[in-house]
Amino acid sequence: MYHFVCPAKYRRVVIDEKVDQVIKETCREIEKRYEIRFLEMGTDRDHVHFLIQLVPTYSPKKIIQIVKSITAKAVFAKCPEVKKKLWGGEFWTDGYYVATVGEHGNEEVIGKYVREQGQEKNYKKQMIG
User: What average pLDDT does the segment 91-103 reach?
Assistant: First the structure.
């Protein structure tokens, strides 16, 4: 089980409700084609968190290459206005964050964190303390 964070190219604010929906729908299609499962997906305006469970035949690097490639194509196809905000024809930045997640102790905590990305109430709660 892995927690991935993928920033949009140049950390641009390009992930609105429509882009969020395209990414999530595309990930559900990816699940059907590959032996991976998206346990949680959470978007913020300039990055996306994924909690992914996968079989050991795929490396984390290979999985994120698949996810980033397929979702970027889908976003550009279904949301052409996003391409105008980015230059160079790339949706995702080259890098990403990845960490393993313990099945029992951390899955619930990380899952909640990923699920609640971009929700205004959580931002305010974090800022207040």
Answer: 89
By residue count, the chain amounts to 129
| CA separation for the pair 22, 30 (Å, rounded) | 12
> CB of 35 within 8 A of CB of 55?
yes
Where residue 124 sits, what CATH number does that domain have? Answer: 3.30.70.1290
State the residue range of the domain holding 11: 2-128
pLDDT tens per residue, range 40-61: 999 999 999 999 998 888 899 9
Using CB atoms within 10 Å of the CB of residue 58, give its burial: 0 to 12 exposed, 13 to 18 middle, 19+ buried.
middle
Amino acid at 100: T
CA 37 to chain centroid, in Å, comes to 13
pLDDT of residue 105: 52
Q: Residue 102 in contact with residue 41, Cβ under 8 Å?
A: no
The H or E element that residue 125 is part of is helix 120-128
Number of structural domains (the chain) is 1
Q: Mutual orientation of helices 17-33 and 60-78 as an angle, nearest 10°? A: 130
